[in-house]
Design goal:
With 666 residues, this protein is of the alpha/beta class. It is built from 20 helices and 31 strands.
Length: 666
């Protein structure tokens, strides 16, 4: 018996599963970000009330890493760049990704052949580490051409661990590909995610102890394969798109469909991937999440900030609703957990003062990821104000100086806003009844009162507003699928300037429901493949989406817990890449895992590279929890003819791929 767990932005799902019988039991529980173990234990208790001694494997998928990047959340980190020039900040959006986190350039780094380009300035590194150590949660280290020689990154990592004991991410450990700025970007994202993934795995560990479960704990990577929890703790960036990858694996298992769009709509994001002959398409350029192009091998998934808990707002000065990309806590859920907010909203409705912050609240989301010394004076004041539960945003907005520090806490993922969402609209329309409908109604009334003051949505009822939110969510959902399909076909994305194309698509999606016909022109859409829709909100929105896209829809049984199913249906896959270069005629240099070795004969170099890659990938697969490992090795030489017609060796690339099923407890 296997136990699958998926921790999402809103819900934590659990399934009991056997390879013979498939899904046996399922459950859902609200994700409790302030203490993840509460939601995880509640979900598992619902399907496994007693001891779990019969469980042979536990596998975990999560959207926490994906959501954190999409919402620009993350713990404070310090980036140490060895041998980079300052212009590198302008490439691959590295500077934007670092944001206000500290960074430093130090002397050092290597050449493309792995030779030292300058001595490492360890004194400068030590000064930075001692200065920033008390203020950050982790360090990221990126050395120039570290994939060809990792000596400087490893020296800096040793120093940081000795001086601070904090987690350290070295860029060469995450990828063997070139593109130094993007490698540094991936290291930064990894470092920012470490504290969040630690909290999740510790929470699962708490549950395992309570249930007396001795089985190995696995985590889903972004390509759908599995790694041990220990590996995931060191390389959390590999869990980017873990949730979407698990959803694709689970969707194929549950639906049996082979050539479809898999659409996973959760609380925070909508993730869209494509199955071809039952296999997910992989992105060979690296996962693209929240606008960041990483170097993480992952499912080719298109992620949009659109979910049941997306923030509903008005486009400034216009009668146009926006949904997302930011996630907020649905007001109906907040009212269920904190009934006192109903009284606050009632008082706001009776007040003569109308403010844009009416009906919105702020509350703590999770535990502080560093010491309180990392907070500014005003951040600490806000943090203290929120210790007993949600606070009306009006109270904080009375002091405008509080808004920037509040936003910084939101950006760190420590604090979350609460407001009107599609989930609230679904409660108002009677499509969901899980939470507090009165809370949704009061929030909608306050939303409309402000809109009326702005001469927007006059004489619109609460139910009519809910219909507008539903319609906007359906239209945006259809647009996301079309954008994903166009991207996979190589069409350029529609920019804001291409308003005609956007209007045609949105109008076609809207008019399909009413079958509106123009006397002059008709414009219709048809998706080339069926849709498998999964996730808790999918059954609410996707029947209309599929109808408007003229395609078939499948919402499989257990669609609401598909990610948890996918978590236990995958296997372990690892790869190791080696490069053979030629610094000069007659010398062949093997680069593998940040190390290098020279030979005078190409075949001797290839034999060494192949055997080393084979051994390393086997060791890696075993360390990641695989059993009965099988390895496949490919070699590709690049040889050209020079001006005299002689063969000239350029390089040789060797890739070793290991596969195996996870080890199960005896």
């Amino acid at each position: 018996m296997l136990l699958g767990i998926d921790t999402g932005g809103t819900y934590t799902d659990a399934v009991l599963f056997t390879e013979e019988d498939g899904v046996i039991k399922t459950s859902k529980s609200l994700t409790t970000k302030h203490d993840l173990s509460i939601g995880i234990c509640k979900a598992v208790d619902a399907i496994l009330p007693g001891s779990g001694e019969e469980i042979r494997m536990v596998s975990l998928s999560t959207t926490l890493a994906t959501n954190a990047i999409v919402e620009s959340h993350g713990s404070p980190v310090c980036l140490i760049m060895i041998g980079y020039d300052e212009g590198s900040l302008m490439r691959s959006n590295l500077g934007e990704a670092i944001g206000k986190n500290p960074y430093v350039f130090v002397q050092g780094g290597h050449t493309s052949m792995g030779d030292e380009q300058a001595p490492l300035d360890l004194a400068a590194v030590r000064k930075t580490v001692l200065e920033q150590g008390p203020k950050v949660a982790a360090f990221a280290v990126a050395g120039y051409f570290s994939v060809r020689n990792a000596a400087h990154e490893e020296a800096v990592r040793t120093l940081i661990r000795e001086e601070t004991g904090l987690p350290v991410t070295c860029a060469h450990e995450l990828t063997s590909s070139l593109d130094a700025p993007r490698r540094a970007l991936t290291a930064v994202l990894n470092a920012r995610l470490i504290p969040q993934l630690q909290q999740l795995i510790l929470a699962v560990g708490t549950m395992l102890e309570q249930k007396n479960i001795k089985a190995p704990l696995m985590v889903v990577k972004g390509d759908g394969s599995l790694i041990t929890a220990e590996t995931a703790l060191n390389r959390p960036v590999e869990t980017i798109l873990s949730g979407p990858a698990a959803s694709v694996v689970g969707a194929h298992f549950l639906s049996g469909e082979k050539d479809v769009f898999v659409v996973d709509m959760g609380g925070t994001t909508t993730d869209i991937a494509i199955l071809e002959d039952g296999q997910p398409l992989l992105n060979d350029q690296g996962a693209l999440v929240g606008g960041w192009r990483t170097m993480v091998e992952a499912v080719a998934v298109h992620t949009f900030g659109l979910g049941g808990d997306s923030e509903v707002a008005l486009e400034q000065g216009k009668a146009i609703l926006t949904v997302g990309p930011r996630r907020v806590q649905p007001i109906s859920l907040l009212a269920l957990q904190y009934p006192e907010v109903l009284d606050v909203m009632q008082k706001q409705l009776k007040s003569d003062r109308i403010r844009p912050t009416d009906g919105r609240f702020v509350l703590r989301l999770r535990k502080l990821d560093t010491g309180e010394t990392s907070l500014s004076r005003m951040e600490a004041e806000i943090w203290t104000l929120l210790k007993d539960g949600p606070v009306a945003l009006n109270e904080l907005a009375e002091r405008p100086a509080m808004i920037p520090p509040l936003q910084r806490l939101v950006d760190r993922g420590l604090v979350i806003y609460s407001g009107l969402t599609p989930s609230d609209a679904s409660h108002l329309l009677g499509r969901h009844q899980s939470w507090d409908v009165k809370g949704a109604e009061l929030s909608a009334q306050l939303f409309l009162r402000f809109a009326d003051r702005e001469n927007i949505f006059r004489n619109v009822s609460v139910k009519e507003l809910a219909e507008k939110i539903y319609e906007k969510t359906v239209t945006r959902s259809g647009t996301t699928i079309l954008e994903s399909a166009m991207s996979e076909e190589g069409y350029p994305a529609l920019s804001k300037e291409q308003q005609l194309g956007q209007n045609l698509i949105e109008n076609a999606l809207r008019d399909k429901l009413t079958e509106k016909k123009s006397p002059l022109i008709n414009f219709s859409l048809q998706l080339g493949r069926p849709i498998v829709a999964i996730g808790a909100p999918a059954a609410t929105y996707y029947p209309d989406v599929a109808k408007r896209l003229n395609t078939r829809l499948s919402v499989p049984e257990h669609a609401e817990v598909t990610n948890a199913v996918g978590a236990v249906a995958g296997g372990v896959v690892q790869n190791v890449k080696a490069l053979i270069s030629s610094p000069e005629k007659g010398r062949y240099r093997v680069h593998i895992s940040g190390a290098q070795k020279d030979f005078t004969d190409l075949e001797l170099a290839a034999t060494f590279a192949t055997s080393t890659a084979d051994q390393q990938v086997r060791d890696l697969a075993l360390a990641c929890g695989a059993a009965e490992v099988k390895v496949n090795i490919t070699r590709k030489d690049k040889i050209i003819l020079d001006a005299g017609g002689d063969k000239l060796f350029i390089e040789s690339r060797i890739i070793a791929i290991a596969k195996g099923r996870p080890v199960l407890a005896a």
